[in-house]
Amino acid sequence: MTTLPPYARRREVASRIREVAAELARQITEDFLGRHPDWLDRYGNQARARGVEDARFHLDFLAGAVEGGSPRSFEDYGRWTAGVLQSRGIAPRFLTENLEQVGDALQEVLDPEDRALVQMILRAGIDAAQEGGKGAERAEDDEGDPASDDDLSLSRSIYLQAILQGDKRAAVTVVHQALERHPVTAVYRRIVEGAQVDVGRLWAQNEITVAREHMATAVSQYVLGELYSRLPTPETILGRAVITGVEGEQHQLGANMVADLLEAEGWSVRFLGTQMPHRDIVEAVENHEADAVGISATMLFNVSSVANLVRDLRAAVGANLRIVVGGRAFGASPELWRDMGADATGSDLDEALAAFRDQSP
Ligand code: B12
Prior knowledge:
Elements: H1 7-35, H2 38-43, H3 45-68, H4 71-86, H5 92-109, H6 112-130, H7 136-144, H8 151-164, H9 168-179, H10 184-204, H11 210-228, E1 239-244, H12 253-265, E2 267-271, H13 278-287, E3 292-296, H14 303-317, E4 322-326, H15 336-339, E5 344-346, H16 349-356
Parallel strand pairs: 1-2, 1-3, 3-4, 4-5
Helix pairs in contact: 1-3, 1-5, 3-4, 4-6, 5-6, 7-10, 8-9, 8-10, 8-11, 9-11, 10-11, 11-12, 12-16, 13-14
Bound molecules: cobalamin.
């Protein structure tokens, strides 16, 4: 087992991988198509464009896993990618071949002392990909639905059907009915979040189109607005917070939930959405005179963007600002929040709220 180098070193290696990623993705794809000329016959120029895109994705995710020091996150990536490709008719052996190419190409450009770390993390992904995506589905299922036989599970599946049909009224009715019997955090997490995870799984398995996924998410976004209007408005202010995504991150529903529930607890919250230039985030934190900032990232390749924002906030506002980071990107790298200088993390709504209350572990 390779011992992990310190975070600062891992960040440098990740940054080196990102620096060469565009060029390596092109080289790897040319080399792959040279070995498999039939792909050009079958997919035409798309083969090249898609190949470069995929190889770039492998490299960007690998950089995220290296920065996080987390073989498990690249293992998840290997399993997930194998599943996505398999459901589109591409066998896992092509993925493992592609990932082996990534390893070979990186050997040439990395310092000798960094190669073992990168190979160890890459290997976790290759081994998982070899299993052919088995288990990817289960991991997603478990994530959103700890108990499967209660009425919240039933609400989740009715809600899922409603959002897949683009039926706002039905979706709103399901959550309103559930609110009569369950706490609001359970409704957010078990119904809205659970169904969004289902939508992701259906997209990954090629069972719904991107358009359908967008429509379903637009309905959930609307439902969050509806739920917001039903949240309590406490009179005492617990503190002031800014919640935001980072540059490069497009997922914002999770951060939106955290922002709304913090507000319901008594925080004065400004929610910035995502894809904001970091200097504007820093300015918003200063203008709101925030005591705390919540930073959300879903994609593993955005963890360095979160680290950059933490650094910029510390430089501008100082050590007293409470910085809480979270989102799916942190799921398989349990120590990363600490490494990047944040004060706390939380993997779900309850943990997120506790992290702002300064009760995190
Ligand atoms: C909707 C969606 C999109 C939408 C997002 C729109 C929007 N307005 O948010 C769009 C279309 C933009 C999108 C794009 C992409 N997506 Co997408 N997307 C999803 C989907 C289906 C739902 C996301 C969601 O709403 N989840 C529900 C929320 C509530 O959950 P959450 O974000 O995890 O938040 C919770 C916790 O993480 C935590 N939390 C969140 N933020 C914070 C912050 C703090 C401070 C704390 C403490 C806690 C915390 O609390 C929340 C509540 O419990 C997911 C499936 C999934 N499993 O989530 C895929 C998913 C995340 N996407 C995926 C992919 C691959 C992509 C794309 C790469 C697709 C592509 N080829 O273009 C791009 C990447 C874009 C980018 N650069 O960011 C994959 C990621 C797989 C992987 N291995 O990483 C997923 C898992 C789908 C799948 N099963 O394959 N996506």
